[in-house]
Design goal:
The structure holds two protein chains of two kinds. Chain A is mostly helical. Chain A contains 14 helices and four strands. Chain A is globular and about 85 Å long. In chain B, helix 4 runs antiparallel to helix 5. The chains are: A mainly alpha, B mainly alpha. The interface between A and B is large, with 68 and 53 residues.
Amino acid sequence: MVEIPSGSIPSAEVEDVELYHPHSWWTKYVFSQDAKIIAVQYSITAISIGLVALVLSWLMRIQLAFPGALSFIDADHYYQFITMHGMIMVIYLLTALFLGGFGNYLIPLMVGARDMVFPYANMLSYWIYLLAVLILVAGFFAPGGPTGAGWTLYPPQSVLSGTPGGKDWGILLMLTSLIVFIIGFTMGGLNYVVTVLQGRARGMTLMRMPLTVWGIFTATVMALLAFPALFVACVMMLFDRVLGTSFFMPAIVEMGTQLQHGGGSPILFQHLFWFFGHPEVYIVALPAFGIVSDLISTHARKNIFGYRMMVWAIVIIGALSFVVWAHHMYVSGMHPAFGFFFATTTLIIAIPTAIKVYNWVLTLWRGDIHLTLPMLFALAFIVTFVNGGLTGLFLGNVVVDVPLSDTMFVVAHFHMVMGVAPILVIFGAIYHWYPKVTGRMLDETLGQIHFWITFLGTYAIFFPMHYLGLLGVPRRYFEMGETAFVPPSAHTLNIFITVMALVVGAGQMVFLFNLVWSLFRGREAGGNPWRATTLEWQTPQTPPAHGNWGRDLPVVYRWAYDYSVPGAAEDFIPQNVPASDGVTREVPA
Amino acid sequence: MSVVLIFLAAIAAIMIWWLSGQRLTSKPWLETGSVLLPDHHGVDRPPVPAVKIGLFVFLGVVGALFSLAVSAYFMRAASADWWGMPVPRLLWVNTTALALSSAALQWAKREAQQGRVESLRPALATALALAVFFLAGQIQAWRELTAAGYVLADNPANSFFYMLTGLHGLHILGGLAVLAHTTVRAFAADVQPERLRLSVDLSTIYSHFMLAVWLLLFALFAGWANDFVDLCRTLIS
């Protein structure tokens, strides 16, 4: 370190940018180029379409527990609900909300930028995403309804007449919607990556970035490399369906007629799909890891344990997730040696993931834990993620996966690990950052009700589901009927799960009400209600104005986790506060 | 999937190289203070514009797209119903046109850097015309092949040929739109060459990249790529 007199350092390392200034209400709030508005637009759209998927899960659960109770649900509808529920939740809710919602809001504010580097492309990204959502929803109104091929859309069944939507509009709209989504996401993704690379404030080295930014950044890089696989798969399947090619379609007799396809490889589709599909799990998980690290550190008033390890673990998980895809294909008849290879890589991922869990626990150890709502959700996330991750170790082994693969055990596993766990983080993050977005706190009592219903309720849903899976209850079945190996008690359990699913779903209405009510009646939050160190809490106005920082960009002097520093006057020191002894030290960039 | 894994390995190498310069082993909790200005603030090395970084990231995405498509090509080509497809002579002409278009852009880039608008204009116009010629030529090649009976759905080799050339053509078309915009700006009366410099530079990078992609695809269609893979197999075994 070199000591030099202060004042000789220019205030901003990055050149200040010329911002686009909106001229009308339309360009300010609708066709906005401000990342904060785009973030809110993304979030509202994602949550709205997520509610549709929630209702679909209700309908499925009602059918499973009370077959025939709702007369309009037949087998075709059931498969359409499964497909749309899965696709909406994974792509149009989780991916869009973490990257489009939190990414847009937090990246510029946390790295000290005025906005994303390409605001116009950012705006286009949202509108193209909205178009993708509308094309998806159009499936519900198209002749034949949406596709019922399952969210993995495996050919050949997805484009045959036996599958709902296979020969109608359903599958076409689904594939088109995915292609449009990927085009829109690429525009947004370029923004997130380049803003982290080029838009950071002076002093914000990579190793001073909050883990939230690290998580979103790494996830975006992965998404940019993984989504092209889905893109290629969708284009090729569209060719097969519309133009009669045989990329994926083998020779097949349908309803007594020989189709013109021949020689195609359905396994090829599975490879392409899971080359996207497995990184997708971590595209959702890594932002959640990052956000939860920040929530725990802030609300336990303690620096994150092992920051460097946390960064390395994020990067290593991101890299490893590209070489595990075929563990979704153990039952596709692959060569056993491949299964062995992919089981090994899969289990290796447990190491960096376990490091992260230990570090969260060690951050909590002897911390000044405030059981605020974000902290409750963060704690719930750790427990849920560990549970879901442990069953992942089961399913990662070929010999255990083969008998369990088509049972409810898999449904329970992935709902715990990539359904409930990230959703808990999303809730925690909304309770944490809502005061910055709106200037008001969310109501605490309503939040407590929401938390306990969601946390206990999701366990009541998915814990028994593991047991059903071990009994051998198959997944994807519209109706069980009389099956010798399934005892009547399993059906009782099914009813219990359904009742809990209805309760948890209804519990989310409390949350929605809280979001709207607090917007008008919530307690005034002030600029930094959680007494947090990161830059987004140091803006001159709350909610931050267009351009975020007023006249001067912030300068960063320390890392993001200076909580409870010995000798400091307060138990947190924001990142833009210089060293207390008045001497400006220089550290290498 | 080996093609895409090789591509990812290359991307990983670039990332490791970049991350290795980011002091990932530093201990940020011990280092309070302001940060030294990075090297690029020197006079001789102006900072890389964000849009250029953005273009490189985008090329990474495009690279992933084509490596995946080519991976699928090889996996599908292993099946029994795959018949080779003749390469029309016209493709040689098209390849030459695309290469010349890239070369013209390289020329335009040099002229733009030296601020010579009079020679920048014909360079850009040539590049644009040659790229349009390439696209028209590709469509003509499609028509010839279809007329000769090599239709899309007959054989997977045909399907891949039309799909890959189509995807590549769409990417060229996108680049053309940007290049056309730049060319129109260059022909404006009050043109400022220093403001065009970046645009021309970006178009040049993109054009070289798409040329490289095309050469690899062309090698694939002509069968050289298979010969190369066979050679590698022989060397390994």
